[in-house]
Amino acid sequence: MKFGYYTDRELPVSVALDRSPLKDYKVNSYGYRCPEWTPMPSGKKNVVVLGCSHTFGQGNADNEHWVHFLSQHNTERLRYWNLGQPGASADKVVRILYGCEKLLDPRIIIVCWPFWSRREKLHSYAQSLMSYDKELKHETDDTDRNNFLKNVFFVEKFAEKNNCQTFHCFAQDSYHEHVKGLNVLEHYTIKNCWPYWDSRTQREQYNEPSLAADGEHYGVEHHERFAKIFLERFSKKLR
Question: 20 to 30 Å CA-CA from 114: which of 120, 128, 175, 237?
Fold first, then answer.
């Protein structure tokens, strides 16, 4: 099925196919930072992980982003697909999810939500809009919240229809108080999980965020700890 930019068997064109420096990352032939899905391997549950550049792992090596660390969990039963896309909004996250329905047949859906101020506008091309874009000047806290909740509904409805488990977490700002009752990682985000101090395991105290190689995104310390916190909360449900 396909109507306009929405389909159930095709992912949106990735920005990592032809834009520097994104095209320099190791991606599959569709521009996603995961293995090829054609032909689809059999024998395991497919876990799709959706989000923005922080989930894509921009600025980090293949073994440094949080989806890599997450993907070491329960590998005998689960296969992980990183569908994060730089610049993605909640709108685009949902469009990617619906596009993977008949490609990946996901059984577990993990969404690391980006800023809710972002939008996707579907012109003659699909345009990712950031909060500073002039086209968003009339958006408010109310419209941001309700656009986010609309997309949470679409994720949960997809899961209900396809008998999937869902998990929600956040890249920078946390909106966990708006989605109570779901499997949601409260308080911690990729942004705020580092630096921290644990006298049992740390000899050196850190006071500044760790940055990735691009000097803009969060570094491996953030990603590794975020994956650890996520698994401490949800590992027993990731089966």
Answer: 237
Q: Domain containing 77 — which CATH number?
A: 3.40.50.1110
Give the C-alpha separation, 63 to 163, whole Å.
31
Q: Show the domain range for 175.
A: 2-237
Stated pTM of the model: 0.96
Tell me how many domains the chain contains: 1
